[in-house]
Amino acid sequence: MQKTNPGRFFEDYELGMVIDHAVPRTVSGGERALYHALYPMRHALYSSDEFARDCGLPAGPLDDLAAFHIVFGKTVPDVSLNAVANLGYAEGRWLKPVWPGDTLRASSEVIGLKQNSNGRTGVVYVHSKGFNQNDECVMEYKRWVMLRKRDNDAPAPETVLPDLKPVLAPSDLVIPEGLDFSGYDFTLAGEPHRLGDYEIGEKIDHVDGVTIEEAEHMMATRLWQNTSKVHFDVTARPDQRLIYGGHVISMARALSFNGLANAQMIVGLNGGAHANPCLAGSTVKAWSEVLDKAETNAPGVGAIRLRLVATKGGSPFELKGADGKYLPDVLLDLDYWALMPV
Amino acid sequence: MQKTNPGRFFEDYELGMVIDHAVPRTVSGGERALYHALYPMRHALYSSDEFARDCGLPAGPLDDLAAFHIVFGKTVPDVSLNAVANLGYAEGRWLKPVWPGDTLRASSEVIGLKQNSNGRTGVVYVHSKGFNQNDECVMEYKRWVMLRKRDNDAPAPETVLPDLKPVLAPSDLVIPEGLDFSGYDFTLAGEPHRLGDYEIGEKIDHVDGVTIEEAEHMMATRLWQNTSKVHFDVTARPDQRLIYGGHVISMARALSFNGLANAQMIVGLNGGAHANPCLAGSTVKAWSEVLDKAETNAPGVGAIRLRLVATKGGSPFELKGADGKYLPDVLLDLDYWALMPV
Amino acid sequence: MQKTNPGRFFEDYELGMVIDHAVPRTVSGGERALYHALYPMRHALYSSDEFARDCGLPAGPLDDLAAFHIVFGKTVPDVSLNAVANLGYAEGRWLKPVWPGDTLRASSEVIGLKQNSNGRTGVVYVHSKGFNQNDECVMEYKRWVMLRKRDNDAPAPETVLPDLKPVLAPSDLVIPEGLDFSGYDFTLAGEPHRLGDYEIGEKIDHVDGVTIEEAEHMMATRLWQNTSKVHFDVTARPDQRLIYGGHVISMARALSFNGLANAQMIVGLNGGAHANPCLAGSTVKAWSEVLDKAETNAPGVGAIRLRLVATKGGSPFELKGADGKYLPDVLLDLDYWALMPV
């Protein structure tokens, strides 16, 4: 009997199937410290327990993207080990903060299937959820990947495409219990800009850049127990290790502190594209565009919808060419909702 | 008076001498997080406090190899700073799990001495033990190293060779208090294979590989407070820094999850050879061979004896050439006992 | 309105101005573990909670230099983002240990101003303080940097130079509450040398070296939330990333264990010069010179004043050329007070 995990192929998925992913993970102050060592994170709510308490939370939570990476990492062996491409994300929501001491596990439900016309590949849509030790869902997202078929002669499943929201409505966003920005300390947070100071359509060049090293992206990706071999094994690809897309997301988000220091908590992921592969030696920079703003019911708390673009060169604010395709220096185009003092 | 530690030479050891090693070390969730960042660790018992509790333990312990590295690191300044070669290990036993908050210290007793016929070097055998803050022995092992003499004219000691077991018997293994695999969750653990599914003689290619970077092995080796300069100082050797052999052990053990996810706790180290030096840039892969199986008295808990081989190339399952010597791509040949649900 | 931080220029400072720095930071066992992974730290008081308790402290504190780096990092966006040069330190004092769970913030008061004769730059002197969550000052230091003017036509401020002590007197040093070295365990600490064993003028070559990697110094510098782009962005300088001077300080201090294992707690920083820039690939070594010794009122606790020199080559004990300038291989010349058993 084969003991190792060969990964799943397109015909291994059925609509409605629920996969419980392996290897639950307990987080501590160690994960928080490593997140600060790997990314230039400065958002005060995640850096300081005292600042978080002054905002109505019991302590500083684990970074929202770290929670995402842990949940995502658990899905890899069951969803994307054999993926030809990671096609997209939608309807990502953070439902509960993750605290040091929490243990996370994950499961995914198959919500869509479509065999490609070539008969050799297909697209699988999953709804993935992360749970804490109390079986509370801490975050969820939908994701679709292209997978090879094991047997090209296997019959095509009925095509079912999920109905995905292009953008989460403000009413879809869940505000962490107790969050209160009415006494927000802008000096300690690092910038004076509140939601009212941002205009829809405004673009911000975050200025700073970070040149990425192999050791760093591998440590990050392992920390999330993501086992995809292209990130670790230089002999598995013709050229260089491919950097986990989530490493670029976290790097760009951290860089966005400079101009968006008060976009504190990420509560919604509307969509995202890894426009081009990132390799070690690239210098990652970032810019953002304000896409929308909204009120919430929590005291002093507003929501800001942002496009976050990571690049490895080129000029800020350039995204796509005349052909509608991403420019070669664009690494990431992410669309998310964050909470900001009004 | 010379203030720095010159290390010990062969004639500095006497049979029965006990050396208390310096620099006790308290571990926390930080060491656990770093272990997960440095190695692709996925064994559920070490990743999740909840999984560990469901197996009868109070929490997820520090990885057994991390405990070994800490104890080993403490012995380096007193045992192997001037070692010409690290010749072997035997009778390694893990006696108590190490928990975040524990403080470890170590001591070694000289149990054997043999001057080499060249008169310039000799072999020292030590029995090293690690203790926690309650003076409980958490692990022990025997090790022998070749050391230079300071003074070639110093008289040879009486040759005493310790009586070392080639393999620990199942009855030598200590099962952690409370361990119970009768309700073991194979889904959360990541693989369905139980002890009965493995056959003696079975070989498993763990498939995945990791290309090693200088920054990673140095961070790991420093974390264990191992001060051997060949690991850190590129000017101390003709070519490249030599990677601590324990880094290769941990990397190979982590890779072995793929096929041996349920070989949870390491309780015995029968022997091990660092067959060839490992340098940064090498892509480490691993394969295992089932050497033996045994029952234990703990509910649902069996023991599996494994050969773990790390390579930097070549085909899996190749170990030695026609001359009986390790092939040049073999890095490690380790023989250990782990606990697995029956 | 510009959202990103352009940094301050010389004319943005006024005498007596107090700047509250952003982004408070909670530390945990994670920061402690990372400090041990990044530097070959072995001082027992910081490595072991048990050893620290035997010395009268409630637990092992965060390394004193880690506390310094955190406070320093907070000042960077307000003080040195546009610095042409970091000119010096004086009167650094550690007033309270920092414990896991503490949250640090920082503020700086402008205590001196002097426009340079070229009319384009000036020197700003600040008195920076770090506070814990109880508003207790945990450390303080004075520092001066050269800054560009935004507008060369801006009028020069009145020149005010602070009165800085060239060396802290023993009576200026603050001994941590409860510290007691009367039962100090020299075996566990790693060396037998007490204060009486060192002579003023004695020089110690710490022997060991560490070759520095890009990934390591960037992780360290990010951990302290230091945002100075020259440390991270290879495109921001003509050649290579410039390593944060504090990384060299911590590396040299850790290497000094070999010969100064009992110089446990740093309580005073008399001055320091980053003599030459450090780049990745350099092999850092260190030597020390005993500059002074003193008694304290705490039981068994003495103070030793040390020069700590980091080099990237050359012979130990060489510091300056015939021209009085630092030799090109000298990286750091630091003057500090540490506590040592008498």
UniProtKB/TrEMBL annotation, chains A, B, C:
<dbReference type="GO" id="GO:0016829">
    <property type="term" value="F:lyase activity"/>
</dbReference>
<dbReference type="InterPro" id="IPR052342">
    <property type="entry name" value="MCH/BMMD"/>
</dbReference>
<dbReference type="InterPro" id="IPR029069">
    <property type="entry name" value="HotDog_dom_sf"/>
</dbReference>
<dbReference type="InterPro" id="IPR016790">
    <property type="entry name" value="Thiol_ester_hydratase_Rv0216"/>
</dbReference>
<protein>
    <submittedName>
        <fullName>2-methylfumaryl-CoA hydratase</fullName>
        <ecNumber>4.2.1.148</ecNumber>
    </submittedName>
</protein>
<dbReference type="InterPro" id="IPR048274">
    <property type="entry name" value="MC_hydratase"/>
</dbReference>
<dbReference type="Pfam" id="PF19315">
    <property type="entry name" value="MC_hydratase"/>
</dbReference>
<keyword id="KW-0456">Lyase</keyword>
